[in-house]
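Hi V.,

Quick status before I head out on leave. The structure for the redesign project is tokenized and pasted below; the design run finished overnight.
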């Protein structure tokens, strides 16, 4: 008997590195490493609270948040696939 597991996924998740607006009332110093981690934990907590188990990052032309989001995902039970959309000269 083969069992199937279904995963709830969001396969195009942005971070503050890509034209990202924080919800009103949220204030983070995203130049500070501890504040970035705090933001990422809140983000992943929200992702998990909505039942999402897997995300794929989709920032444009940067990998700046990959490690931060992957670490926060691990702390919060969310699988994070690192990703980066790349702009090329030829499209």
């Amino acid at each position: 008997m083969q069992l199937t597991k279904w995963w709830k996924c969001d396969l195009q998740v942005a971070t503050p590195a890509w034209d990202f607006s924080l919800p009103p009332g949220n204030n983070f110093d995203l130049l500070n490493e501890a504040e970035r981690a705090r933001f990422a934990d809140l983000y992943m907590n929200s992702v998990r609270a909505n039942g999402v188990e897997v995300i794929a990052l989709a920032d444009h032309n940067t990998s700046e948040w990959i490690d931060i989001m992957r670490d926060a995902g691990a702390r919060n039970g969310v699988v994070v696939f690192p990703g980066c959309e790349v702009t090329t000269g030829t499209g």
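Above is the designed sequence. The longest helix spans residues 33-49.

G. will cover questions while I'm gone.

Best,
W.
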